[in-house]
Specification:
single chain; about 240 residues; alpha/beta; Rossmann fold; five-stranded parallel beta sheet; four-stranded mixed beta sheet
Length: about 240
């Protein structure tokens, strides 16, 4: 045994193993075999890495033909729906028709701007905490819509922390100006918007809640809304 400058004891190896040594591995101990393999790897020089091919490809696909079309295709691919209207009047008339057609009467909304429209178009709703647990539909706004993934970015700023999780049907009222290309664009703009006073919750929703935990069968609505619908104002 020898002494290390830091006070550690060193144990000499029985033999030195050099790269390309022709050694019968049956004559080596398991420890020496492991050391030889490590030595071979460390002595191998290569200009390429396992990531070379990965980084040679473009990570982000282009948004085509435009952000709105891309978003509508992507949200449909994850079992969500998006409807586009050219005026607030047409949007809320269509929303009322949808709610009546589905027989929904227990509608919950806490966003002040949206509730003003709901009142104007005689759409019944509640903002009371007492009615929260019996809601059938929750209506919220959003922060951004992500074209590439069909995602909806929501926060607790206007509607609280539970409105995008609890209702069986989640309806989002959005504007075309809220469309961004990629997730990092949305997060960057959120940081700029709120500066150092971020909402307590910022969430990315990509389609209705889903799980395949049981027998690998896809089930929608297992841990959250069964339906996600975006009513978008293209104005």
């Amino acid at each position: 045994m020898g002494n290390h400058p830091n006070g550690w004891k060193t144990i000499p190896l029985k033999m030195k193993i050099k790269k390309n040594d022709l050694i019968n591995e049956e004559e080596l101990s398991s420890r020496e075999i492991i050391l030889k393999k490590i030595s071979d790897i460390l002595c191998t020089r290569t200009s390429e890495t396992i990531f070379s091919e990965y980084f040679s490809h473009q990570i982000y696909r282009e948004i085509a033909p435009d952000m709105l079309t891309c978003f509508m295709e992507e949200i449909k691919a994850v079992s969500g729906e998006c409807f586009v209207y050219d005026s607030p009047s047409n949007l809320f008339v269509a929303l009322k028709k949808f709610l009546l057609g589905k027989g929904f009467s227990k509608i919950h909304c806490r966003n002040e701007k949206i509730t003003e429209y709901l009142k104007s178009f005689d759409i019944p709703f509640s903002s009371s905490e007492a009615d929260f647990e019996i809601m059938e539909v929750g209506i919220t706004d959003c922060e951004f819509l992500v074209a590439r993934t069909g995602s909806v970015i929501v926060s607790s700023f206007n509607s609280g922390r539970k409105m995008n999780i609890f209702p069986p049907v989640h309806i989002v009222i959005a504007h075309r100006s809220q469309l961004v290309s990629y997730l990092d664009d949305a997060y960057r703009q959120i940081l700029q918007k709120y500066n150092n006073n971020l909402p307590s919750l910022i969430s990315t929703i990509t389609g209705p809640s889903r799980t395949s935990d049981i027998e690998k069968t896809l089930v929608l609505g297992a841990h959250g809304p069964k339906q996600l619908l975006v009513f978008l104002l293209d104005n």
